[in-house]
Amino acid sequence: MRLSEVDIVDTISPADFKEHYYLPKRPVVIRDLAKSWPAYEKWNWDYFKTLVGDKRVGLYNNIKSDAYTPINTADDYKTFGDYIDMIRTGPAAWRIFLFNIFEHAPQLTKDFTWPDTLMNGFVKRYPMLFVGGATSITHMHFDIDMSHILHTQFVGRKKVLLFPFEEQFKLYRKPFEVLSLADFSHYHHQNGSPDYDQFPALKLAQGFDVTLEHGDTLFMPAGYWHHMEYLDSGFAMSLRAMQSSVSGKIKGVWNLFGMRNIDTVMKKTVPHPWYNWKRKKIFEQAEKELRKGS
């Protein structure tokens, strides 16, 4: 992989953000965006536990889903309070995916400000909390609705690996899915993934690498591939904004209601032929990228 550092700024004007990051679709970390929010000092494990400790949440492990695994199916369930107690005691490779804590504790929405000066189109009904224990992993994917994301880390550190959408075939994208066939687990370790012998086109993939810390806000442009690893137990909030272009909105709608439904039907009706066709297509596309690169 050919990785560059993500630009990091303390503050940025709306004009500079639009010119250098939003329009060219380039990621950036804004360090001070969340520091004026009450959430910056207020949000912690104990506070959340008092608010939603009794709520039952789905937990996800680090095992990559295979061709026959239903998408977004939880691997276990606990109350939020029990989960917090578990990940506080040490490394626990369990994460919570798309927990809408704000439905249960709407007062939390008063603890942050929507950054409307940076971009339009925020989906204000759906701010989302992402929580993980140390060593937990969110495997390489892109967001199905093709939204822009502002992802703010509140507790703990997190490693993030990013690639533009256009790198999809070098990343061995599964057809009709938002996932990569390759495993990027522990990519930042000397003996970590990926397996270049099995996935040689990954050597050509050009992306970004960054570590998020308390208060950092990462702008992930629409369609960006991302893989995240929790270095410490922690949580972050994502604010989503729809693309301003009609074509961008159409892509999101197609992914949600066309692509995903086709994949679901085919997995249920002809799972083995569908999987075999996908796998063949994945490596054919990667081979084309290798030929271009040579």
Automatic annotation (TrEMBL):
<dbReference type="InterPro" id="IPR003347">
    <property type="entry name" value="JmjC_dom"/>
</dbReference>
<feature type="domain" description="JmjC">
    <location>
        <begin position="94"/>
        <end position="273"/>
    </location>
</feature>
<dbReference type="InterPro" id="IPR041667">
    <property type="entry name" value="Cupin_8"/>
</dbReference>
<dbReference type="Pfam" id="PF13621">
    <property type="entry name" value="Cupin_8"/>
</dbReference>
<protein>
    <submittedName>
        <fullName>Cupin-like domain-containing protein</fullName>
    </submittedName>
</protein>
